[in-house]
Amino acid sequence: MFKLDDNLLQELGLGALQPADKKAMLMHIYETLEMRVGMTLAQQMTEAQLTEFEGFIDTNDEPAALRWLESNFPGYKQVVADELEKLKGEIKSQAPQIIAASQHQDQE
């Protein structure tokens, strides 16, 4: 589907980040994407579906959560792709500021 890796950071204009900053940025992207996808899908779920899905999340059963999504929301991968594209656009527009802030921190 997609990879959160150095190639993505290069694409976003963040290839100059230090390794620790790259790791932190990838984690931020993952967490933000997860939250946005979850919010989008939750708006489409019934109360019963939301309760069932939250059960998988609360027990950290990611494989079961993904299977549940595939059977109940077959279009969820498109939601992920759409949200990732939005997020990438936001990050690209902020890339120079992110690089500058990172370099400023490294100088302190």
Summarize the model shown:
By secondary structure, this protein is mainly alpha-helical.
Low-pLDDT segments:
none
Would you list the SSEs in sequence order as H and E?
A: HHHHH
Average pLDDT, rounded to a whole number, is 92
Count every beta strand, where a strand is a DSSP E run of 2 or more residues.
Answer: 0
Question: How much of the polypeptide forms β-strand, as a percent range?
Answer: under 5%
What does this structure look like?
The chain is built from five helices and no strands. With 108 residues, it is mainly α. The radius of gyration is 17 Å and the shape is elongated. The chain starts with 5 loop residues before the first helix and ends with a helix. 7% of the residues are buried.
Defining traits:
5 helices, 81% helix, mainly alpha, single chain, 108 residues
Which helices and strands, and how do they pair?
Elements: H1 6-11, H2 19-44, H3 47-58, H4 62-72, H5 76-107
